[in-house]
Amino acid sequence: MTSAWHALEDLITPACFPTPHILIRASNGKVNSDLGEFANLQAHQAKQIYRMLRRSLSPTSDSRRREAVLASAFSAVELWRYRLAAARPSADGRYSAIHAENFRTRITDQSPNYFPIGDPRRFREGAVWDEQELRYTDGAETPASRTMEEILRTGSRRFEKDDSDVVVNEVRLPSGQTVPGARLLRNSAASEAASVIASRIAARGGDTSRCHSNDEMLYIASALEHKRRVIFRWAMWLLAMPGGEGHAAERWVRAAYLLYQAPRHKRGVDAVVRTFLVPVGLYLSGSPSMLPHQLDLLAYAHSQPEFNSAVRQLMADG
Q1: What is the pLDDT of residues 219-258, one digit of tens each?
Q2: Helix 225-240 vs helix 63-87: angle between axes, to the nearest 10 degrees?
Q3: How many whole angstroms from its chain centre is CA 29?
Q4: CA–CA separation, 10 vs 30, rounded Å?
Q5: Shortest CA distance to 297 belongs to which of 149, 112, 75?
Q6: Distance (Å) of CA 4 to CA 9, 10, 13, 114
């Protein structure tokens, strides 16, 4: 059995962690060395998590114990991501040393997370900021700009039958209860989110001249804290359930959506969820999960049924 476990562990490779295209800002699609190395680091950590699951889940069928093991594994990945940010900071930007603390700072109702969706032009290679028009111009298309354009279309469709400025990702839990997850914001609600982001940047002494919103921009806002806790617990419940391989694959997809609706820290959410999902998927189904590169963005912009369907299809297509 030990050799069989080791053989499965070797299935976790950097290929399980494709670089999110939203990070690829070169028109030729070239991935820079830092991004390529990060997949190696994820694979190494994922193997450790797989060993942890193998040691702690296999001896028990108690559902509460299994949920606790999975929650501990998730926390271990969060700690790994923070330590990595603290030990290997970039020279500047969002991954610099002064921002490392954000990887262990909790999201709260007083300080929610916001993520802008829109303005694909800013992701083009060689894009130029127009001070008069307050927008980016020129530049060549990149995987990042194409990805942002796709996600903007997806998110915008959510408002076609809704006149409000806020659309909520309604999360149906395994219990049958529905709770509000992340919110998509547009128009005045998006402008408020942009103002909050600008004030945070200004408080750090940063440049806010390019913090903006327009009638095409959307923002993703994290759910309320107590709702996120409930969603996270049900994600662990789903993954702790016994079941055959087919059932495991379905539960994995459903849990992935829940985890993205329940972020816990200000930074590193996507990397943590991915590094957790791969070893869990391997443990449950016996085969590695090749993650879609835009998994997080799909979870934010799609409704729950749309996400489940899209991810199943993407993973089936390989």
Answers
A1: 999 999 999 999 999 999 999 987 655 588 899 999 999 9
A2: 120
A3: 21
A4: 27
A5: 149
A6: 9, 10, 17, 43
SS3 276: helix
DSSP 163-206: -SSEEEEEEE-TTS-EEEEEEEE-HHHHHHHHHHHHHHHHHTT-
Query: What is the spatial distance between Cα 208 and Cα 231, in angstroms, rounded to a whole number?
Result: 34
Q: Give me the sign of the Cα torsion angle 6, 58, 104, 177.
A: positive
Q: CA neighbours within 13 Å on the CB side: how many for 250?
A: 9
Kindly report the length of the chain: 318
Q: Do residues 300 and 115 make contact, with C-beta atoms less than 8 angstroms apart?
A: yes
Asked if residue 137 lies in contact with residue 127, where contact means CB atoms within 8 angstroms, the answer is: yes
pLDDT band at 159 (very low <50, low <70, confident <90, very high): very high
Q: Tell the residue number behind the tokens 């005045």, with chain if given.
A: 188
Report which of 56, 99, 97, 98 is spatially closest to residue 76, judged by C-alpha positions.
56
What's the one-letter identity of residue 246?
G
Under 8 Å CB-to-CB from 207, ≥6 apart: which residues?
A: 201
- Which residue, among 298, 310, 218, has the nearest Cα to 261 in the 3D structure? 298
pLDDT category at 104 given cuts 50, 70, 90 is very high
Question: How far is residue 280's CA from residue 215's CA, in Å, rounded to a whole number?
Answer: 40
Residue 197's identity, in one-letter code, is I
pLDDT in tens, 38-70: 999 999 999 999 999 999 988 788 889 999 999
CB 131 within 8 A of CB 138: no
What is the Cα–Cα distance from 241 to 235, expressed in whole angstroms? Answer: 10
